[in-house]
Write a structure and sequence with these properties.
Oligomer: single chain
Number of helices: 3
Structural class: alpha+beta
Number of strands: 7
Radius of gyration: 44 Å
């Protein structure tokens, strides 16, 4: 007999009847089989990949946004509401207004320059200058400055130049400046003057044609 024609052995003895030798037929009165339980449906793989990509891009977007927020907070953390920074202080306005100078002061050293001072025959590299009333002829005025902290280390000439440039960019001039041909001029400490306590970076407006300015150009 071909063994393929033998019906499979039932898991339990049949309740009645005998197996038939007919090919491939099931035993009569076989076991009462319970219906198969529903198998869980496997997720669609294409859909699963799409979901993973969406999650991936969402995570990347959150990281980028978080990084930008952190950068903004970090950039602003060094500044307070008055425009000063933890590393120093930028001054662009004379507050309170200084007492008007009635006569020239000669031999004033750079450490004695004050924001708003006007200078006759100004030379930023000179060891002294002549401070004059801004209503009289002068060639320069100190319009912005930045003070480094006293305990800071010498930052180097490149950093000082960059800071002086920022001070000039932050300077606020009055409409009176429109009546003159002016240019910005920067002055900053050398390593030697820094060692002696000089911590100030200055920005001046100057007239190349000499003492032709007859008014303050600050608001």
């Amino acid at each position: 007999m071909n063994h393929q024609d033998v019906p499979p052995r039932p898991s339990t003895p049949p309740a009645s009847g005998t197996p038939s030798a007919g090919g491939g037929s099931s035993p009569v009165g076989g076991p009462n089989l319970a219906p198969a339980a529903d198998a869980p449906r496997l997720p669609n793989r294409a859909l699963n990949r799409t979901t993973l990509w969406k999650v991936f891009f969402a995570v990347v977007l959150l990281l980028v946004v978080g990084g930008l927020v952190w950068l903004a907070l970090w950039l602003n953390s060094g500044r307070d509401s008055n425009g000063s920074t933890k590393d120093g202080a930028l001054e662009t306005a004379v507050t309170p207004a200084p007492t008007a100078l009635e006569s020239p002061k000669e031999g004033v050293e750079p450490a004695g320059y004050a924001l708003g001072d006007c200078f006759r025959d100004f030379d930023p590299e000179a060891l002294t200058a002549t401070v004059v009333p801004c209503t009289t002829g002068h060639s320069a005025q100190l319009v912005s400055l930045y003070r480094y902290p006293g305990d800071g280390t010498y930052p180097g000439s490149d950093a000082l130049k960059a800071q002086a440039q920022e001070a000039c960019q932050a300077a606020r001039l009055s409409p009176a400046a429109d009546g003159y041909t002016l240019e910005f001029q920067r002055s900053y400490p050398s390593s030697t003057s820094w060692a002696s306590g000089d911590r100030r970076v200055d920005c001046y407006v100057t007239a190349a044609t000499g003492n032709v300015i007859n008014a303050s150009v600050l608001p």
